[in-house]
Amino acid sequence: xxxxxxxxxxxxxxxxxxxxxxxxxxxxxxxxxxxxxxxxxxxxxxxxxxxxxxxxxxxxxxxxxxxxxxxxxxxxxxxxxxxxxxxxxxxxxxxxxxxxxxxxxxxxxxxxxxxxxxxxxxxxxxxxxxxxxxxxxxxxxxxxxxxxxxxxxxxxxxxxxxxxxxxxxxxxxxxxxxxxxxxxxxxxxxxxxxxxxxxxxxxxxxxxxxxxxxxxxxxxxxxxxxxxxxxxxxxxxxxxxxxxxxxxxxxxxxxxxxxxxxxxxxxxxxxxxxxxxxxxxxxxxxxxxxxxxxxxxxxxxxxxxxxxxxxxxxxxx
Amino acid sequence: xxxxxxxxxxxxxxxxxxxxxxxxxxxxxxxxxxxxxxxxxxxxxxxxxxxxxxxxxxxxxxxxxxxxxxxxxxxxxxxxxxxxxxxxxxxxxxxxxxxxxxxxxxxxxxxxxxxxxxxxxxxxxxxxxxxxxxxxxxxxxxxxxxxxxxxxxxxxxxxxxxxxxxxxxxxxxxxxxxxxxxxxxxxxxxxxxxxxxxxxxxxxxxxxxxxxxxxxxxxxxxxxxxxxxxxxxxxxxxxxxxxxxxxxxxxxxxxxxxxxxxxxxxxxxxxxxxxxxxxxxxxxxxxxxxxxxxxxxxxxxxxxxxxxxxxxxxxxx
Amino acid sequence: xxxxxxxxxxxxxxxxxxxxxxxxxxxxxxxxxxxxxxxxxxxxxxxxxxxxxxxxxxxxxxxxxxxxxxxxxxxxxxxxxxxxxxxxxxxxxxxxxxxxxxxxxxxxxxxxxxxxxxxxxxxxxxxxxxxxxxxxxxxxxxxxxxxxxxxxxxxxxxxxxxxxxxxxxxxxxxxxxxxxxxxxxxxxxxxxxxxxxxxxxxxxxxxxxxxxxxxxxxxxxxxxxxxxxxxxxxxxxxxxxxxxxxxxxxxxxxxxxxxxxxxxxxxxxxxxxxxxxxxxxxxxxxxxxxxxxxxxxxxxxxxxxxxxxxxxxxxxx
Amino acid sequence: xxxxxxxxxxxxxxxxxxxxxxxxxxxxxxxxxxxxxxxxxxxxxxxxxxxxxxxxxxxxxxxxxxxxxxxxxxxxxxxxxxxxxxxxxxxxxxxxxxxxxxxxxxxxxxxxxxxxxxxxxxxxxxxxxxxxxxxxxxxxxxxxxxxxxxxxxxxxxxxxxxxxxxxxxxxxxxxxxxxxxxxxxxxxxxxxxxxxxxxxxxxxxxxxxxxxxxxxxxxxxxxxxxxxxxxxxxxxxxxxxxxxxxxxxxxxxxxxxxxxxxxxxxxxxxxxxxxxxxxxxxxxxxxxxxxxxxxxxxxxxxxxxxxxxxxxxxxxx
Lengths: 317, 317, 317, 317
Known about the structure:
Shape of chain A: globular
CATH superfamily of the largest domain in chain A: Dihydrodipicolinate Reductase, domain 2
Number of domains of chain A: 2
Radius of gyration of chain A: 19 Å
Mean pLDDT of chain A: 97
CATH architecture of the largest domain in chain A: 2-Layer Sandwich
Largest sheet of chain A: 7 strands, mixed
Strand content of chain A: 15-25%
Strand order of the largest sheet of chain A: 8-9-7-10-13-12-11
Oligomer: homotetramer
Helix content of chain A: 25-40%
Structural class of chain A: alpha/beta
């Protein structure tokens, strides 16, 4: 059994990680730390866990574990790392953005870096939009075919975390839609870095318009760029690229977000329009975009089948 | 023109009041006060007002007005009244619950107290659930036919105001439903007082289960009690009771909340089941349940046609 | 491996059953029949299944199976049974309402009839509202303490199936709420029958107001009745009743629907108000209220651990 | 009083038109025709109208009117025109797309064609997405500055009408998002025609990705293109262009759909990113995108103040 510790278990990604690990056949949860909720039962904060676990949030951590998940806010991971000396036997999976651009860590997108993840000690888990965009564009970059890309995407509210804000107030967000950080989303740096891992000379813009959706879970990304391949060739390239990646499927049908909600899957769809290749991708932002991908990385780091504990019943509706 | 001042104009009911008064043919808005937003344009806080009004929130009030609307949180009205000496020529319409049980004020439900509202100087505007429940039950009490009543009701999120809370966080409330303050809702005192105005010997429980709905506007109330009348007689009684009240209609069709959203209307529907008379009512919690009713009261207090400025296009969808 | 056939696999409960059985460790899906979709891949109709199963809907059935699930509309099961001679070695789990009142079948609520389910050949799977209401009231009836009950409940739209109707049109239902079949819901007959299994002299009304919610999954039921027990005693009775039932938990916290969505769980909460004992319950209408309970019944009928294949990651948000 | 007839009054745009005209001070509704609902009261089909109008849908039309609104499905208007000889004294406002490209009719976008609308006998009312996109781009074309544009937009479900379809089923659409007709939306022809009215040499693509939103009312459009102007100049150009158009405001704040829902307004916002000028616009698809614009056109055609009957209280929440 893999002994697991979680730092920052009271938030959305921490809770989602506990939900996954409780049903993981090779994992034992040793502790779940939370500053704000120490002493409370997990099912007090995550009430859906009632009946599944009686564990209490701890104030402290211990290193009698095999792997430590960092589920804190951005900035808190680097602070944590600077304040703790993590023993060599403890692997770290960090869900924050703090080290995603750090060449000393492994960027934890299995569809890009599976081998290096398998031997990594510290994995920086990708961002949610970053995951959806990369899975839409990696096969192009892999073939050196990436050009200027026009991207729009829409995300559920859980991507914004549990701290209340104006744009997560129900009376504001319900039946509403808006954009934010157009052309300037913080995930684009990690996207660009990954794409240049395959196509180092890439120097074109990735124009990205992120929309706030009035739903809680899921991301839909639409990207298009000029492409000289016929559609059939593009589809062949994408299928080939993803053939050994169990969570990504090239779909021949129109996509919608609920096809993958509550799963670790990513569906990708390709169409051609007036010379533009359009690629869409859908993921669950909390699973393939966060905690599910973290477990996928853990599986790879510990030599387990990649899908262990991640064959999830989708929400569908 | 009626000169109007508004205290607490940055909240939901204050904003809604401004939306109504801007289109009211007999009103001039003199000032809109807000402690938190003083100096800001109204359309900065209520961005839908862009293009309609260039007024700025004021820090202070003045009494060169005919009527003052108090749109502050509960408790703040009584504090305001204790701190200010309001001139005799200024009528007050108070949307808080602070004076709804005060016999020195007039309880501003026009379908109960139209005549006393017409001559009132200080009107305590009813609560939203209180309005919907009273409009469902007043004709029974008027006929001395009120018995123990079983009530369930569901409200939109704007009833909870703009301050964020766990239960107005989008990620929590979206696609969710729950109850709160079962058997113990703060509006039941004013409901009981009104019903006893007609049926003073009434001493039975009003059992009320309030639900939080995952929508922003609207209230649906379902009430039932034993009733010896045949259905046709009940319908006749209700139609007679509401015949001179332009905002209440007895509907022969099943009700849903969106039939009245964005209007000042109340629809009431009656059916009979195994000896129980079931009464349903629907209102918009911010209009007939708050700011719309406040304007209706203003119209009555100033001798205007009751519906002036309140013939609103419904949202319908 | 239990060999499974499904009749009517293109609908909501059929699709949900496939989702569950695909991850069930002791099941092999032999065929999924659908008249309307015969020849189509399952993932064409249920697109979320892409990547999980390549099976095609069949026009016909065969009886080289151990258990047959009937997922057809109400009325179609009895027609099916009258037209087919089901071999003795094939057990049937029928999700329709056709035989729920039939004394020759076993009513498949494990929290009421676990032993008879274990030896049953034909299980009539309970209705969704019926499940939520019974789980709220069974411990009272078990103790002979059931009295007249006042019940309100709210259900997601998937309970109405995939056939379009006015009340499942998005433009109508979104941000809307309404009631239907007040005092006259078709599930109350099976509820009454079950309660009288424990308390045969029960002859009081079960007054039930069903609401249509503007969400897709989940049911919340609120019931209250006079009760002479103190609250602590009621809680003790309920905990004792459910102690050997792994899917039902007595919660000390306020309930909301999303605590159980996408799980087979039922949470029950008890409070006391002015002599009324109030009981709330929440389930996922498609899981504990339909396909999940069907799998639970299958587990019992085949001697498996009751929770096999049903430890589902909840949706939570 | 302008005497009005409506053909096709049972649908969404027909109902919305009735809602508007009931409160219009210079209009008398003579008849509302509907094939499917002839003989029914308007408030049976549009239940929110209860208490406002007792009119019945007629099977037939008469020409004792001043203006006829055609609110039928696409294709039905041209069929209607070919089958009826409309007297010269009857002006027509056609909400379908049948004649929007017809040079013998006037394309009814007041912000483009105000003068020709004022003298028109037959106005082809623009499409909803077409309106939002044109209001975002017209000032650029007016200055000959239009280049290849990248556009994404998201629309409420009422744009798809009241006929049920898979993508308007609540269980599918709720909490879901998807695209449709990417690069191929039927409104782009009218958009292109209008833009070329100002900039005849324009021959670049207008790349448009339309999203289906999980809300009922509203459209948000995001467009960007290279632009050599500094942002301040772009804002100046837009403000100048719209200075005499009362329903369009250039907003300095981020836009969201609910800022204009239930109004006839359009808000436009401009920002600059890496050489791209980004323009966003928001409208209510049923008002500025359909029936509200139809009334605006009527006002112009009959010499009324353009905003008559269109100063609507916004929904805001």
